[in-house]
Design brief:
Length: 297
């Protein structure tokens, strides 16, 4: 743990995930200094005022000063940015032989992985990149949404770790240990399939339900007065930020489409059973669905 005390962590993107990470990495002693890059000037000013990071810097300064760089930006942006970061690492090595001893590391926290690992698969410094996905979050976004303890007890997925340098993986594992997360290891393509089922379809169905209710609410103003906790929890994800989710659906298009097709087929079975007034079929569908209790308690 001693190696961590003089570490500077640079976080690119100070929204919910990046901001929450900044809070706990500083408070729990993983980093002696946390600096941030934030493209949105309003968010940058807010992050600085709130005190999420020690200092807001530009991208070049972040690359120069940081031992570990965290890409906490939408995945579409990260796919373009990641090769640039590794190129910058390589340029630093070429410019200064002593920089070779620094062993800078870059990681991401995006919700899809395959496009990211593909973007740098043949990069000479691929080993300095660790692909990760902390399975934590809320429906809120921006630096105001950042909170301490967001990651405690949650799972973190580390993808294609065999492609990363062992010391880079250890650094990232130590980071997630500091955040009290358990590690799960899988390949990038498998990760994208799994999150399409457990995360991405949940958001799509929540968006669709919100649109359905909003459409109905045009004529029935009391519908939200009658909404219970069940509705609120189901539609909660519909508050999520489009800037984040549009690129996720795009990057994970094939897996998401497959899950949507399966979901539509299941909805069709419910519709058919209800239309036929087939209570036995409806009961069977519900009881089959109840088996989810074995997985989620």
């Amino acid at each position: 743990m001693e190696q961590k005390r003089n570490m500077t962590v640079g976080i690119v993107g100070l929204g919910l995930i990046g901001g929450s990470m900044a809070i706990d990495l500083a408070r729990r002693g993983f980093a002696s200094r946390v600096i941030g890059v934030e493209a949105d000037p309003v968010n940058a000013a807010a992050a600085e005022k709130i005190g999420l990071v020690d200092r807001i810097v530009d991208f070049d300064d972040c690359m120069e000063q940081s031992d570990l760089i965290v890409l906490a930006v939408p995945v579409g942006t990260a796919v373009k940015m990641l090769p640039e970061v590794l190129d910058r690492f390589r340029s630093m090595e070429d410019d200064s032989p002593s920089a070779r001893k620094m062993k800078k590391t870059v990681m991401d926290v995006c919700s899809t992985k395959e496009a990211l690992v593909r973007a740098v698969h043949y990069h000479p410094l691929r080993g300095r990149y660790v692909a990760t996905h902390p399975m934590a979050g809320t429906e809120y976004s921006g630096p105001w949404a950042a909170m301490p303890g967001l990651f405690d007890g949650r799972a973190c997925i580390i993808c294609d770790s065999q492609e990363s340098a062992p010391d880079a993986v250890r650094t990232v594992e130590n980071l997630y240990d500091t955040l009290n997360m358990r590690h799960i290891y899988m390949n990038a393509s498998g990760h994208d399939v799994h999150v399409a089922y457990v995360s991405h379809i949940s958001h799509i169905t929540s968006f669709a339900l919100a649109l359905t209710v909003l459409d109905k609410e045009k004529n029935e103003k009391h519908i939200f007065d009658l909404a219970s906790g069940g509705f609120s929890s189901t539609v909660r994800l519909a508050k999520s930020n489009a800037d984040m989710w549009v690129p996720i659906f795009s990057q994970n298009r094939d897996n998401v489409l497959q899950v949507i097709d399966t979901y539509i087929e299941k909805m069709g079975r419910f519709r058919e059973a209800i239309a036929d007034d087939d209570e036995a079929a409806v009961r069977t569908l519900i009881e089959d669905a109840n088996r989810i209790k074995r997985i989620i308690r």
